């Protein structure tokens, strides 16, 4: 009788394991898929947190290109140095003029040596030496946006006058 009992018991165990496998195999696949999804979401959230932290740091860091009076006094600005500064920043004469607040003709005259920049413009040029290409581009974008806002606000207040008939 002991053999029949052992055989029945082993058969019941085998069938129970088979049934459990039928139920748990799809669940295991689902669990693995969900773990992969959670892992991917974690990486995405981490990347987004890093990106927002970088954006926050960049927005807090205000680009300033001011130079101290000592730096201005000690600096030399030859036409060649002005041209090389402009080339290093990767900007045109027109863009340098926009950054310094002068006309493109003035920048041309600085680079040819016809005129030298005045003290306040020299301070701006010395401050521009501290910037890199990205900072210069960002500063130009800010200036362009500021000029567009001024143009829009300036044109709203003016009323058009009709010509008088005589």
Structure description:
Helix 4 packs across helix 5 (104-112). With 166 residues, the chain is mainly alpha-helical. It folds into 2 domains: 1-51; 69-152, 434 Repressor (Amino-terminal Domain), CATH 1.10.260.40. It contains 7 helices and no strands. The longest helix has 59 residues, at 2-60.
Key terms:
166 residues; mainly alpha; 434 Repressor (Amino-terminal Domain); 2 domains; 7 helices; 77% helix
Layout: helices, strands, pairs:
Elements: H1 2-60, H2 69-74, H3 79-89, H4 93-100, H5 104-112, H6 119-128, H7 133-156
Helix pairs in contact: 4-5
Structural category = mainly alpha
Helix content: over 70%
- CATH-derived architecture of the largest domain: Orthogonal Bundle
Largest sheet: none
Structurally, the number of domains stands at 2
- Under CATH, the topology of the largest domain can be stated as 434 Repressor (Amino-terminal Domain)
Looking at CATH, the homologous superfamily of the largest domain is lambda repressor-like DNA-binding domains
How big a fraction of the residues is strand?
A: under 5%
Low-confidence stretches: none
| N/C terminus separation | 131 Å
- The succession of helices and strands, N to C, reads HHHHHHH
Mean pLDDT: 86
Q: Rg from C-alpha positions?
A: 36 Å
Given the structure, what is the number of helices? 7
**How many beta-strand elements?**
0
Using the coordinates above, name the CATH class of the largest domain: Mainly Alpha
What shape does the CA trace take? elongated
């Amino acid at each position: 009788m002991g053999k029949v009992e052992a055989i029945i018991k082993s058969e019941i165990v085998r069938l129970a394991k088979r049934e459990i496998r039928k139920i748990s195999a799809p669940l295991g696949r689902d669990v693995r898929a969900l773990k992969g999804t959670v892992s991917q979401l974690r990486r995405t959230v981490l990347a987004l947190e890093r990106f927002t932290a970088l954006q926050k740091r960049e927005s807090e860091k205000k680009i300033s290109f001011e130079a101290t009076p000592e730096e201005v006094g000690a600096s030399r600005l030859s036409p060649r140095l002005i041209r090389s500064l402009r080339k290093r920043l990767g900007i045109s004469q027109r863009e340098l003029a926009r950054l310094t607040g002068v006309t493109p003709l003035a920048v041309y005259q600085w680079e040819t040596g016809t005129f030298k920049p005045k003290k306040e413009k020299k301070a701006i040029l010395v401050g521009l030496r501290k910037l890199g290409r990205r900072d210069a581009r960002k500063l130009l974008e800010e200036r362009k946006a500021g000029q567009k806002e001024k143009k829009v606000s300036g044109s709203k207040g003016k009323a058009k006058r009709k010509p008088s008939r005589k």
